[in-house]
């Protein structure tokens, strides 16, 4: 997505080179984002000429899978990635044995066995706080795996979907998909409520954890300090 938008910006603003876009969150291939925030440094004359028409112009050249909903100047010091306080994701699961609705096949994981959300929430509550999530991350040499998990809660949504809402200050690679993969067997009753926390305490990736497929995961919203609050635009999670 990033490279596609950079090329589109260069085209609609008639820039000699594609500008470098900084995104608030990087996502695995196949993960969706409808609350992504990014910033880019543009020549003053290019913005003065295009201004509020940039998003409309971009819609004419971007592929149908990518849309820029809002473009605006930002205060000095704003950084889409490093100014962010937290990121909110949602993972959507259809646990109906008949399958997921065909129209939701691109953003809902089909899990063929029913799950008990109360069991999953009991297990999820034990994972909150600032912890070392090495057991739930695809590690990178020299990179910290300590993250602050503020919220991990399952609820039933329209159509009977089981939806996990996840809020953290930042994420490791595969972290959310691994957490979901650890909680689903708890919901089925195949693993005890204590198991995901025991895995976390081990700080070692367990082969028993299945990293669920990326298409069920969506970046919904990025939160910023009050001085940048208007920068993030509208919450498009509805």
Strand content: 15-25%
Question: So how many helices?
Answer: 6
| CATH class categorisation of the largest domain | Alpha Beta
Distance between the termini: 22 Å
Residues in helices, as a percent range: 10-25%
Structural class: alpha+beta
The CATH topology assignment of the largest domain is: Alpha-Beta Plaits
Tally of strands: 9
Global shape: globular
Name given to the CATH homologous superfamily of the largest domain: Pseudouridine synthase I, catalytic domain, C-terminal subdomain
Question: Sheet bearing the most strands, described?
Answer: 7 strands, mixed
Q: Provide the number of structural domains.
A: 2
Low-confidence parts, pLDDT < 50 over ≥5 residues?
A: none
Average pLDDT across residues?
90
CATH architecture of the largest domain: 2-Layer Sandwich
Topology of helices and strands:
Elements: H1 2-13, E1 21-23, E2 32-33, E3 38-40, H2 44-50, H3 54-59, E4 86-94, E5 109-110, H4 117-125, E6 129-132, E7 146-156, E8 162-168, H5 175-188, H6 195-202, E9 217-223
Parallel strand pairs: 2-9, 4-5
Antiparallel strand pairs: 1-3, 4-8, 4-9, 6-7, 7-8
Helix pairs in contact: 4-5
